[in-house]
Each structure stands twice: as structure tokens, then as C-alpha cells.
Amino acid sequence: MELDPESAQVREVYAYYGLAMYWAQCLEQSIFQHLLFFEHFPKAVEAYTTPEKWAQEFDQYEERELGQTMGKLIRRLQEAGQPTDEIRELLGKSLKNRNWLAHEYFSDRAIAFTQFEGRTCMIDELEALKDGFQHCAALLDAITLPVARKFGLTDERLAEIEAEMFVEYARAVGPINEAG
Q1: Contacts (Cβ under 8 Å, ≥6 apart) of 102
Q2: Furthest-apart CA atoms within the chain: distance in Å
Q3: What is the DSSP secondary structure assignment for residue 84, as one 8-state letter?
Q4: Cβ pair 84, 70 in contact under 8 A
Q5: DSSP annotation string for 4-42
Q6: Contacts of 13 (CB under 8 A, 6+ apart)
Q7: How far apart are the C-alpha atoms of 23 and 26, rounded to whole Å?
């Protein structure tokens, strides 16, 4: 069954909203990874005793940090002397945009959402928000990746980690297939 144009556009607004929120979460992961390689790993390498202790301390660090709000992660990044002024400014803007998107977007756009032109503007706006989150994450990742490589994070190891994540996901929710 094909959707009427209004329903198709409403669906598109939701899809763009989801993509923008996805990239906001990717940015949060980039912040965490930056902290991981600039803060946690240097200390953890110095204190290394056993692989088991390493894994336990990593898990504790990950759980603690990913339990923080995006604002707290950004503050931690700044306290650690990272990142550049340009990225600091973009992170501040991204945080504001992410919070607005998560907490107020649809109520602020309630009237626009009822009109074709309004939904068109929302789609453009959501795409711009997504692009901002994506750009900020890419800037952070460009700083983080060379440091991660020094700790042995090769392309091969990244591929192994991705494969392990797919196996874990399949174990948790069932196999990934084309039907969804």
C-alpha cells in the first residue's frame, strides 16, 4: 500500500529526526572514545598488571563514563585539556542542539508539523542538525584516531571489534536479516 503524500512526508520527518538523534549519539561516542584514548588508556597502561584487571577496569570506566550526560562528557573533555577552541565551540553548539532536539523539538515545531511547507523546513533543519553532529564527531575522531593507533587500534582490529559486536547483537536479539 502506497502512502498519500502527507503521510509519506510525515514519515520522512520522523526518519530525519531519527538520523539526527543517531548522529548526536555518535558524537557522544566520539567524545567517550576521545576520553578513553587521551585519559583512560595512558593511566591504564602505566598501571597494567593482568589482562583480567585491564578488562575489569575498562568495563568500569566505560560504564561510568557512558552513564554521564553529554554535557558532563564535554566538561570532562575540557578539563582534560582537550580539544581545540574550534571543536570546543562546536561541542557547545552541538550540546545545545542535541538537548533541544531531544527535549523540545516537536513541541517547538508543533504548528509547522501540521503543514506541508513546515514539514519541508523541518526536514531541512533536521538534516542540518545531523550534518553538524557528524562534522563535530569527524573533527574529534581525526584527533583521536592517531592516538588510538599508537595504542594498537589497527584497521584489522577495528574490523574484528565490529564483527564481535554483530555476533553479540545477533545473540541478544536474533540474526540481522533484510526484513528487519
Answers
A1: 21, 24
A2: 63
A3: -
A4: no
A5: PHHHHHHHHHHHHHHHHHHHHHHHHHHHHHHHIIIIIHH
A6: 113, 119, 122, 123, 126
A7: 5
Residue 101's contacts (CB-CB under 8 Å, 6 or more residues apart) are 17, 20, 21, 24, 129
By the 8 A CB rule, do 35 and 76 touch? yes
Q: What is the pTM of this model?
A: 0.85
Write the pLDDT tens digit of every residue in 22-62. Answer: 999 999 999 999 999 888 888 888 888 898 988 899 899 99
Residue 45's nearest CA partner among 35, 58, 30 is: 58
118 CB-contact burial (10 Å; exposed 0-12 / middle 13-18 / buried 19+)? middle
